[in-house]
């Protein structure tokens, strides 16, 4: 009886729970819910799968449950596509992840093959702490970018020089130094319990039980084997030829006194693959997103690159040795920080798992936005061509607003309005050839028909503008700087035109703002793109009347001799109508939006950069080889990851020089290895080879700060690597302590950083590293390092120094460069004080930098600001990224209440078109500059009756005045 009673109670409980679940489900699916229009999509599937994994249950979950679909990531960087494609800010972190894995693969491949002598070189190879602190520097230099860094060696491929072993061919079964960023809110030394992201745990994943990360049963190793993602580097089954590329290095060394050593040091080594455009075996692969169970316990994405060495390493039988991939370098970051493109699949958005989840309406286009990571709303909806925004909408529809809208709000909003009466792009046809067309003469009387209708037409225009003030802006959009008034006032038309020869004019009058950049090369006529846009075959009547441009009240003839009878020809009755183009600046509201003086300065500077080359740079003055610092505006954001490459090396050198004690020995474990010149040259080689943007990199030691492996202290030492011209698999280096370049300590970037850190180092960041090492050679278990934890102080990225653009005429690159420099520090001397030791640099080409010509505040240090040629009464300026160092890298989009008038497949005016038409107008050539503006959004509301009334009024007025 009792058993039946308990069974009945259990049935009642189960029935009640089921009813509650049904009620809850019905309440969610209730048709009255304002968010019922949201349909489940792939984003919901991934989110649900990610929520299921946690530290408590991940060990019992299957491998499939801990990994996301391979297409969860899109537009991944590929080595053979990086120099051919434009990479925007939403892929800068993934690109850094790619380059950093390649960087460490190049370094370890170079140093292991460069130091392969069985008796002389083992002591110079990277030590245990070199591996550990290098991985730690990868993380500390990239907050919010890199969270895991490690090197996973294949089975029995690690020759540990840090153990005192009698057998030189003794190898470690497995070796995997891995660094992870820890959440230190509960750390014993964090008294405030505030996370700082400055605590790093370093461990050997190859030590301890169940440590075979290369085995197929090892669940959490997608970086070792995932053939669907192309990851199958180790064990190496490809042999010695197909997957190994040979690289060439050349080093110019110097003696301790600075004399060059005549014999160059040439080295060839096998490194990561350098595939062609159509090859598929890439040097760096990305894993699918996976859950790092037992580690960071987060969903992460890793980049994987293979390192190469000769195997067997030490053998007298040469034919047995060959290049082999002996391990992989792994760099990881949080999946939540990676942007995805939610827009529909297309040419610029290959189909992937999260494509097409944006909720833009058919009258709009989807545009992805950077910085959202893995969450909804990372897009905006712009109007389709032929549509405009409603009057109440300021800017495109934001994705975050659409995702938060109810069904009623979504149904009644977020639509664009069709544009009526769109204009056709003007094209002049039927032009007469040079032989058929009658040349115009300035002393000829104008047509009698125009003289007859000139006065009535002007009066009619004034009457219409006065009577129909409501439609003034719609029919006749007001050009900048009162161009409409110049059409109506006869005094301007009666003003005589003066003609002046270019040779008689001072240059500071012809080029506004000339005095500001007077040290640059002069601006010439061929520096402008004055291509006739309507008909390229038209000769414009020998261009006798077009070889010039207007400046104030004068028409400047370029390279022409002034006619001696010009005073007789240009009297009050026989004149050319003056074009009103001299607009120095004008304002809309508060702030200057266009500066004509600065516009010509920009054109002159861009022309100067183009003209100065390696062939003529020695003819320039020192001032002509240096540009103003404002020219490099924005470089600290656009090339932040290039700067962080130098910062990574700075952090590593600081960590090593602050914690390494030469000769330190713990039993059979030797940790006190000094850094030698082979390793330093390898580091700068890796910086240059791994990043297409970096053209040179160097480590510049201060006076008597470098001590080589033999105990010799050098006065100066500076390994500097650079890319030779047209070389893809070769890199050259020089010791900049050579007599010809020994003055690097007097360079501005070196003196600035040294003086900044001479008296105080309080602002340096303190990094805490917690290393765990293997207890013996075989890796039976893990134990704490003998010094636990270890600390080192490093600079932030913002404390580095970006130089002003300069031409490296006497250097190795011989191009326009911008250099990022960051210091490193060490504990030097008997006093064991933290001291400035030197500077690490990376350089990029100036021509890789984007310029921003849009309006900005007066305090913004941008040389190119306020030079965009948009009509700011009806449009606003927006930067177009990745157009590099060229004028016109912007677009003019319509302001609120205005619409794009032309019938084409875009919704904005491109900056290159604006620049070209403006320069044609300055030269007096046919142009359509005054047409490139938006009109007020009323054309779709104009009816045929309204247009008929205006047509009848115009016809009536012409008939009245013609009688």
From TrEMBL:
Entry keywords, A to Z: Cell membrane, G-protein coupled receptor, Glycoprotein, Membrane, Receptor, Signal, Transducer, Transmembrane, Transmembrane helix
Membrane-spanning ranges: 942-961
InterPro entries: GPR158/179, GPR158_179_extracellular
Membrane topology of the entry: Multi-pass membrane protein
Annotated Pfam families: GPR158_179_EC (PF22572)
Location(s), subcellular: Cell membrane
Top-rank taxon: Eukaryota
Domain GPR158/179 extracellular: 286-387, 802-898
Gene3D superfamilies linked to this entry: PAS domain
Signal peptide, first to last residue: none
Main location: membrane
GO MF annotation, one: G protein-coupled receptor activity
GO CC terms, sorted: plasma membrane
PANTHER family registered for this protein in UniProt: G-PROTEIN COUPLED RECEPTOR 158-RELATED (PTHR32546), SMOG, ISOFORM D (PTHR32546:SF26)
Similarity-based family: Belongs to the G-protein coupled receptor 3 family.
Protein name: GPR158/179 extracellular domain-containing protein
Protein source organism: Schistosoma mekongi (Parasitic worm)
């Amino acid at each position: 009886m009792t058993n039946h009673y308990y069974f009945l109670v259990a049935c009642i409980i189960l029935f009640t729970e089921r009813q509650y679940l049904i009620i809850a489900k019905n309440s969610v699916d209730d048709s009255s819910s304002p968010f019922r229009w949201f349909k489940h999509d792939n984003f919901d599937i991934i989110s649900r799968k990610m929520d299921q994994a946690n530290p408590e249950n991940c060990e019992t979950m299957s491998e499939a449950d801990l990994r996301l679909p391979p297409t969860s990531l899109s537009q991944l960087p590929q080595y053979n596509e990086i120099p051919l494609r434009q990479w925007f800010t939403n892929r800068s972190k993934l690109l850094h992840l790619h380059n950093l894995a390649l960087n460490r693969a190049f370094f370890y491949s170079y140093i292991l093959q460069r130091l392969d002598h069985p008796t002389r070189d083992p002591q110079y190879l990277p030590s245990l702490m070199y591996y550990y602190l290098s991985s730690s520097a990868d993380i500390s230099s990239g907050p919010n970018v890199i969270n895991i860094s490690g090197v996973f060696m294949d089975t029995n491929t690690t020759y540990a020089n840090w153990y005192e072993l009698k057998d030189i061919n003794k190898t470690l079964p497995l070796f995997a130094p891995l660094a992870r960023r820890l959440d230190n809110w509960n750390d014993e030394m964090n008294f405030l319990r505030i996370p700082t992201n400055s605590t790093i745990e370093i461990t050997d994943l190859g030590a301890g039980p169940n440590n075979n990360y290369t085995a197929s049963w090892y669940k959490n190793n997608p970086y070792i084997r995932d053939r669907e993602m192309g990851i199958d580097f180790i064990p190496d089954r490809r042999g010695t030829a197909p997957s190994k590329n040979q690289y060439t290095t050349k080093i110019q060394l110097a003696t301790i006194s600075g004399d060059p050593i005549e014999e160059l040091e040439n080295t060839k080594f096998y490194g990561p693959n350098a595939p062609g455009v159509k090859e598929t075996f890439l040097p760096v692969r990305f894993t699918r997103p996976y859950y790092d169970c037992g580690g960071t316990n987060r969903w992460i994405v890793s980049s994987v690159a293979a390192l190469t060495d000769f195997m067997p390493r030490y053998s007298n039988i040469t034919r047995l040795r060959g290049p082999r991939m002996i391990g992989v370098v792994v760099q990881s970051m949080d999946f939540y920080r990676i942007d995805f493109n939610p827009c529909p699949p297309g040419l610029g958005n290959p189909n992937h798992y999260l494509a097409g989840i944006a909720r833009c309406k058919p009258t709009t286009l989807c545009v992805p936005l950077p910085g959202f990571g893995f969450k909804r709303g990372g897009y905006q909806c712009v109007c389709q061509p032929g549509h405009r925004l409603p009057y109440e909408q300021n800017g495109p529809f934001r994705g975050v607003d659409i995702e938060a809208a109810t069904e009623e709000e979504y149904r009644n909003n977020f639509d664009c309005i069709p544009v009526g009466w769109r204009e056709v792009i003007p094209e002049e046809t039927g032009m007469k050839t040079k032989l058929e067309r009658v040349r115009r003469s300035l002393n000829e009387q104008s047509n009698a028909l125009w003289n007859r209708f000139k006065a009535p037409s002007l009066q009619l225009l004034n009457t219409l503008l006065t009577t129909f003030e409501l439609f003034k802006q719609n029919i006749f959009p007001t050009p900048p700087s009162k161009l409409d008034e110049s059409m109506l006032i006869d005094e301007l038309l009666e003003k005589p035109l003066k003609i002046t020869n270019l040779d008689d004019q001072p240059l500071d009058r012809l080029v506004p703002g000339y005095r500001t950049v007077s040290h640059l090369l002069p601006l010439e006529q061929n520096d402008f793109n004055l291509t006739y846009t309507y008909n390229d075959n038209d000769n414009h009547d020998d261009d006798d009347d077009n070889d010039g441009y207007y400046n104030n009240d004068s028409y400047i003839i370029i390279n022409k001799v002034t006619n001696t009878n010009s005073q007789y020809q240009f009297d009050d009755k026989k004149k050319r109508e003056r074009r009103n183009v001299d607009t120095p600046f004008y304002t809309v509201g508060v702030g200057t939006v266009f500066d004509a003086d600065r516009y010509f300065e920009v054109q002159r500077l861009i022309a100067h950069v183009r003209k100065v080359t390696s062939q003529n740079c020695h003819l320039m003055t020192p001032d002509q080889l240096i540009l103003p610092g404002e020219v490099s505006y924005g470089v600290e954001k656009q090339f932040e990851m290039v700067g962080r490459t130098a910062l990574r090396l700075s952090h590593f050198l600081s960590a090593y020089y602050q914690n390494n004690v030469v000769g330190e020995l713990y039993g059979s474990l030797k940790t006190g290895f000094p850094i030698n010149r082979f390793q330093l040259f390898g580091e700068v080689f890796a910086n240059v080879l791994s990043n297409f943007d970096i053209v040179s990199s160097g480590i510049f030691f201060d006076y008597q700060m470098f001590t080589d492996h033999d105990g010799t202290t050098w006065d100066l030492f500076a390994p500097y690597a650079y890319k030779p011209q047209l070389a893809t698999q070769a890199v050259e280096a020089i010791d900049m302590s050579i007599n010809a370049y020994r003055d690097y300590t007097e360079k501005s970037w070196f003196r600035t950083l040294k003086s900044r850190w001479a008296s105080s180092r309080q602002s340096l960041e303190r990094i805490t590293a917690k290393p765990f090492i293997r207890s013996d050679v075989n890796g039976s278990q893990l134990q704490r390092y003998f010094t636990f934890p270890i600390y080192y102080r490093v600079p932030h990225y913002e404390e580095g120094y970006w130089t002003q653009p300069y031409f490296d005429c006497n250097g190795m690159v011989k191009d326009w460069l911008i250099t990022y420099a960051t210091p490193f520090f060490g504990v030097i001397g008997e006093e064991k004080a933290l001291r400035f030791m030197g500077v690490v640099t990376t350089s990029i080409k100036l021509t890789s930098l984007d310029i921003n010509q849009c309006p900005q505040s007066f305090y913004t240090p941008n040389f190119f600001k306020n030079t965009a040629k948009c009509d700011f009464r009806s449009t606003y300026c927006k930067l177009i990224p990745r157009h590099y160092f060229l004028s016109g890298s912007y677009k003019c989009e319509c302001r609120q209440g205005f619409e794009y008038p032309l019938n084409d497949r875009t919704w904005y005016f491109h900056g290159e078109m604006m620049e070209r038409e403006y320069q044609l107008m300055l030269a007096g050539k046919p142009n359509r500059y005054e047409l490139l503006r938006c009109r007020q959004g009323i054309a779709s509301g104009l009816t045929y009756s309204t247009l008929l009334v205006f047509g009848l009024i115009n016809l009536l007025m012409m008939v009245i005045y013609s009688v």
